[in-house]
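Per-record layout

source: Grus americana
name: BRWD1 protein
length: 267
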Amino acid sequence: MKPKVTMIAWNQNDNYVVTAVNNHLLKVWNSCTGQLLHDLVGHADEVFVLETHPFDSRIMLSAGHDGNIFIWDITKGTKTKHYFNMIEGQGHGAVFDCKFSPDGQHFACTDSHGHLLIFGFGCSRPYEKIPDQMFFHTDYRPLIRDSNNYVLDEQTQQAPHLMPPPFLVDVDGNPHPTKYQRLVPGRENCADEHLIPQLGYVATSDGEVVEQVIGQQTVDQDEQGLEPSILDGMIRQLQLQQDQRTGADQELASTGPHNGEGTPRRG
């Protein structure tokens, strides 16, 4: 096998360069002389994550598709700490990305199963308040393109960036309670009535019909005297303005030069 470099990173003070090679080795080099200092052994699959510590020039983090996360002392060429991303009943999860916190006391990783892994000092109690599964209800909704090749949400026929803030749901599409819906930017100050999504039956790719969130709950708002969402109103107004501009542009494009009687001719 011809070795190939999959990732490269300098340490905090730029004295060392670490390269990840597709033979699963990490190599530590002197950045001034190019001398190979250490081979770091431990990974069993390709590594695409190398992160340097924000202020400790000795420390480098690596993570790979084998589910392993290593903290290395690159000056000595030794492992300082090792974690393995084992997922119960599913084997290991490949680690796709990692970042240190600014103070260097924590780091967070994401894996191939959609998990956010947070490592650091202290206890996990603050994080236990958040549900295990958190998705936006629009994450896997299909998109289409209009006649101008612009992307639209297939269900609402709206541009995705003009749609109301999405709802938080679990992996099966069931909405979380209103206290979690306020975690979504744009819904922080919404009344409880505006945090209850509209549910409907949606056919999945294998033909199964399931109940899922299909959009903003607006039914009977006027009858109940509820205040409409200010943000949703602004989005609707922007969409209306865009539709009007699009219609005006199409009308100009379809109107040709005038003849002597002042009657427009179609191009």
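summary: The longest strand covers residues 78-84. Residues 218-229, 258-267 have pLDDT under 50 and may be disordered.
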